[in-house]
């Protein structure tokens, strides 16, 4: 009978050792999975940052181009206004001179 109890105790000890080993292996696997997940996340964040930077650069270039076009349009408009102002001014001066000189 003692031999049977001894075998049961040995089997129980072996089972506890197997459970402890399985828990340690599970913890190791979990830690490795966590490390890989963090590595993948960091890699994806870097790729996303690169993609966003490229898109931001594209938007900035487009905005700069539109701003330059708007400035050019505004400059042309101001030139036309100045020309028109000068023409009106000259016409008024001519009319005033004709009124004063009676011509």
Task: Compile the SSE list and pairings.
Blueprint lengths: L1 H100 L2
What does it look like?
With 103 residues, the chain is mainly alpha-helical. It has one domain (1-73). 97% of the residues lie in helices and 0% in strands. It has one helix at residues 2-101. The longest helix is centred in the middle third of the chain and has 100 residues, at 2-101. The N and C termini lie far apart (146 Å). The relative contact order is 0.03. The model has no long low-confidence stretch (mean pLDDT 92).
Based on the model shown, name its key terms.
mainly alpha, 103 residues, 0% strand
Total separate domains: 1
- Topology, number of strands: 0
What composes the largest sheet?
A: none
**What is the overall number of helices?**
1
User: Which residue ranges are poorly predicted, with pLDDT under 50 across at least 5 consecutive positions?
Assistant: none
- Fraction in beta strands: under 5%
Based on CA atoms alone, the radius of gyration comes out at: 44 Å
The overall average pLDDT, rounded, is: 92
Shape type: rod-shaped
Helix/strand-derived class? mainly alpha
Distance between the termini: 146 Å
Order of helices and strands: H
Helix content: over 70%
């Amino acid at each position: 009978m003692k031999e049977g109890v001894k075998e049961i105790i040995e089997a129980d000890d072996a089972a506890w050792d197997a459970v402890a080993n399985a828990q340690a292996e599970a913890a190791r696997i979990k830690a490795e999975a966590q490390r890989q997940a963090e590595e993948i996340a960091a890699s994806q964040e870097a790729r996303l940052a690169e993609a966003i930077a490229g898109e931001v650069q594209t938007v900035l270039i487009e905005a700069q181009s539109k701003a330059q076009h708007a400035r050019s349009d505004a400059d042309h408009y101001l030139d036309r206004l100045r020309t028109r102002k000068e023409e009106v001014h000259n016409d008024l001066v001519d009319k005033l001179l004709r009124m004063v000189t009676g011509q």
